[in-house]
Amino acid sequence: MILVLHGPNLNLLGRREPEIYGTLTFEELEEKLETWGSELGIGVVSRQSNHEGQLVEWIQRAEEEGFRGMVLNPGALTHYSYALLDAIRAQPLPVVEVHLSNLYAREPFRAHSVTAPAARGVISGLGPLGYRYAIEYLLALTS
């Protein structure tokens, strides 16, 4: 199983700045993740929280819950959450950081990720397909 974690405000997809994040709703993204998991022969569990501590707890428990890897879109926490960085580093599972928008084409403060150094890779700007590519990479890595 692959755990997909979505940070703050991602529950507002489809309504929040569609010119940046697209018109796909969070519910539609979850359906895509489930479909992609089925196509790839792996269970995908998707969770979203607007609370940093909840994301930290899910990261810390992922291995004991039986996950093989994680896809993480930390949202705005990308730019300042040392708690997420430490949580990723404190556990053994591979993590791929994903961003729907191209962080480098936006405001300068968004071009820096404090969580990326703990990730195996970062996918930015490919929209929802970035999640699929991250899942495929994790499958290849953990097979």
- Number of H- or I-type helical stretches: 5
CATH architecture: 3-Layer(aba) Sandwich
Uncertain runs: none
Tell me roughly what share of residues is in helical segments. Answer: 25-40%
> Can you identify the CATH class?
Alpha Beta
CATH superfamily: Dehydroquinase, class II
Percent of residues in beta strands? 15-25%
Query: Average pLDDT, to the nearest integer?
Result: 95
Number of E strands? 5
CATH fold descriptor: Rossmann fold
Main sheet: strand order: 2-1-3-4-5
Largest sheet entry: 5 strands, parallel
What does this protein structure show overall?
With 143 residues, this protein is an alpha/beta fold. The chain has one domain (2-137): Dehydroquinase, class II (Rossmann fold, 3-Layer(aba) Sandwich). Helices cover 36% and strands 17% of the residues. It is built from 5 helices and 5 strands, in the order E-H-H-E-H-E-H-E-E-H. The chain has helices spanning 18-21, 26-40, 52-61, 82-89, 129-142; strands spanning 2-6, 44-48, 69-73, 95-99, 121-124. A 5-stranded parallel β-sheet has the order 2-1-3-4-5, sandwiched between helices. Helix 4 links the parallel strand 3 (69-73) and strand 4 (95-99). Helix 2 packs parallel to helix 5 (129-142) and helix 3 (52-61) runs parallel beside helix 4. The longest helix has 15 residues, at 26-40. It starts with a strand and ends with a helix. The mean pLDDT is 95.
